[in-house]
Batch of 2 targets.
Target 1
Amino acid sequence: MRVAAIAPSVTLVSGPQSRENFAAVHAMNPLHRGVEVAEIVTALRFILATPTYNAQALVLDGGQRLLGLPRDVQHMGGDTPPTKLDSE
């Protein structure tokens, strides 16, 4: 048995989130682009095609986890925080 996970950042509009808020937070990461559903499918295909991949999670977040944001970007109201890459 293998166990694997895919951990994407904001991918689809969620609950009462507005399309405007989604557009603002979708790219809140160092790459300034959000995760698309097709990229999640590609990650799944990689996991399925790699029998030695086990007990790991593929994080698809454009580097968002590196920013140390105070909360989930979906709840940040579209205010784009500075990224570490922007300040270099």
Target 2
Amino acid sequence: MAENLTVAKVHNFLKDDSVPIKTELYDNREKGLFIIKLANGGSWRYRFVFNGRRYRHTLGSADMKPEKARELAQQWRTKIKNEGINPLAENPSQDGRANSEN
């Protein structure tokens, strides 16, 4: 499901006990951006494809405002599409938060 994510919508999504853990809520303003509900709250993640391979990367905790998450996702998209750079190659995750889906 994609929605125009706001601070209030994210808060309600994360606090709603009827929403199962690991449920993803996608932003309809920034392709590939979503928030995932986790047992300890949630996190903003970005899905992208680079050289035919799909990736997910954690951008930050659910405390981050949607506007900031969109800004980070746009920066990643620019590097991928305009510069042909895989941002994970520039900043490999030191804590294992980035992963390939293939």
